[in-house]
User: Fold these one by one.
Assistant:
Number 1:
Amino acid sequence: MTPASPPRVRRTLLYMPGDSRRKIEKAAGLDVDSVCLDLEDGVAASQKAAARETVRRALAELDFGGSEVLVRLNPFGSGGEADDLAAAIAGHPDGIVLPKVESIDALRWLDAQVTGAEQGNRWPPGAIGLIAMVETARGIVNLKEICGASSRLQALVFGAEDLAGDIGATRTADAWEVFYARSAVVTHAAAFGLQAIDMVFLDYTDLDGLAREAAVGARLGYSGKQAIHPAQVAPIHSAFTPTATAIAHARRVVDAAQAQQSAGFGAFALDGRMVDAPIVKAAEVVLARARAAGIDA
Ligand code: COA
Ligand code: MG
């Protein structure tokens, strides 16, 4: 397998139902990192075939500007996934999102199909990335195998609503009932060099609540968050873009650490607080995220 090209920044991943040409057109005009045309739960069972056709045409006809274009399939084993993939692949999307990934088999199947399509169409190998949604108890338990299943895998997405349903939890605003899984996803993503995209905030009229939940996700280590409405794009975008203050502080820490290392010190004081290797590493992550967001840091 050829290694996938480096992933782009994915702070906001905005879904819209694949059978809504209007919403797809709307999304194409937005300044959003990733647009995801959904063939799964945002589409009624009776509209699946129509949605595939709408997605196929939209990919061929619309200009999504600088946004990454993704298509979400129905899950592996649902019976719809092969037709979904055929419709998506015809439009050469930037990536495929596979929901309810529970085992290595799902990603192996998808990787083989995408590889076959790239070869058949003489497209550059590895250009179509994969994103796995982990949102079931089995998916959480099998995270390690899932993360290593395909060299095309670029990101994990955490699905809190599906997970809560699967484990019998009741969703609450502070999300403690899904905390183990939310933390497991971001930790496995980091272990395998993948991005981690946090849960959906359903109340799209509550932008303060969204900002709070996005800030928690960013503090947990997530690199982005799913969105379901255009109004959610700006708050999420800002929660996952390091602030000027955070960047300036990170730069000071990294510069000071370099000077201290040269002078022979691994641990030192800065503004009355100890700085050593893990603090420097965290500062480097802030700078890397800023650079990924196009900021000169
Ligand atoms: N992507 C692109 N455009 C969207 C959008 C989305 N996810 N959600 C809403 N819009 C558009 C609407 O079309 C509307 O524009 P218009 O008046 O020019 O048609 C505008 O934004 C305002 O929408 P609003 O009236 O506030 O919402 P709505 O009642 O049309 O839709 C939802 C509400 C929840 C049904 C809609 O936001 C939606 O479909 N979200 C995505 C659902 C989905 O994909 N779920 C599966 C993944 S979790
Ligand atoms: Mg889901």
Number 2:
Amino acid sequence: MGKAGVIIAAAGSGTRMGFGKNKVLLPLLGMPILIRSIKKFTSQAWVKEIIVVVRREDYSEIDNLIKQWDVRIDQLIIGGKRRQDSVALGLQSLSNDIEWVFIHDAARPLVESRVINDAYTQVQKYQAIGVAVPVKDTIKVINNEQVVENTPNRAKLWAIQTPQAFSYSLIKQAYQQAEINGWEGTDDCSLVENMGFPVKLIAGSYSNIKITTKEDLQLAKVLLKMQTGGSLVMKSGIGYDVHRLVKERQLILGGVKIDHPCGLAGHSDADVVTHALMDSLLGAAGLGDIGRHFPDTEPEYQGISSIELLKQVTAKLSSLNYQVNNVDLVIIAQRPKLAPYVERMRSVLAEVLGIDPGNINIKATTTEGLGFCGREEGIAAFACATILGLS
Ligand code: CTP
Ligand code: MG
């Protein structure tokens, strides 16, 4: 049946993930995405060689990770500007006694062994295989003004994934032709198609997602747990906090600076909304409260932005495989009028929680002049959150 070489493309920068580092280095239920992807190819007897293509700036970190996780690869090489350049460099490094080439995105760690094995069987027959799934959405073709030009028949549309598998000589030739003719493609099959050679698609799976944005990272956790037989649980928590209003402090609510002559007193920035929110999240996860995690006796929390603390709470939840589902907040303040700030607060909090602002609801109310809030002695906030976990 012939031996195969595998090229794992990991030389991207993960810009759309917005974590400031290559997304494939991020952990997915404890194990880095890249390591999970490589491991999908290390147990097939027909895999002769694995080449991982990385960016120069990630080289030593990835080299260490590979050693740390003890995965078997044959070469770690530096990639290029575009994915196509990285794969081309991978192809040049393959030993020439292999018969088949598998090209796989490091960003697809959830590919199932069944799919990889199917591709290996089918490539012997067709020489060029793409793993793909029928699209679920109706697709529109638009012009430069984003006006629809046409609607292709969905029954004929498939979304392409990786791996893509080819005969060694065919893919070498396709990349050479691409270089000569200036062909650019966002996948490898398209270069073979450009040569007029038929590419056969085989059924992948909807769970073989390409981890691209933060939502994908959360989704991947759920899919991975489902693949390993776990199940989902929903948990809820409440939070409540009050801070005293004082002169000469900046009022900050929900991570947003509010124009007001008074601010809230406290050890941190006293963002009462973010505090209530953190307590609701910690409560939902059964992790106590913010006093336990960020004691106000600790100098390191003096004047700290509560948004920084919320980042830590979110990271804590992620490490326990929890993701935030939705949040509902009530702010009780006699003044100032908060409606003009609500949208900003939603987007700031949504960014930190890694969820859509549509999953954050914020209500502000006065107490009609009654009680400590009514007398403008303080501001209070309630929060209610649900989190999605895996058991
Ligand atoms: N890739 C690569 N070389 C590049 C660009 C991308 O090897 N010059 C790899 C990525 O590491 C990823 C795969 O190709 O595993 C698919 O690319 P994509 O999902 O677009 O990842 P990034 O380019 O890293 O992400 P972004 O486009 O958001 O920056
Ligand atoms: Mg990219």
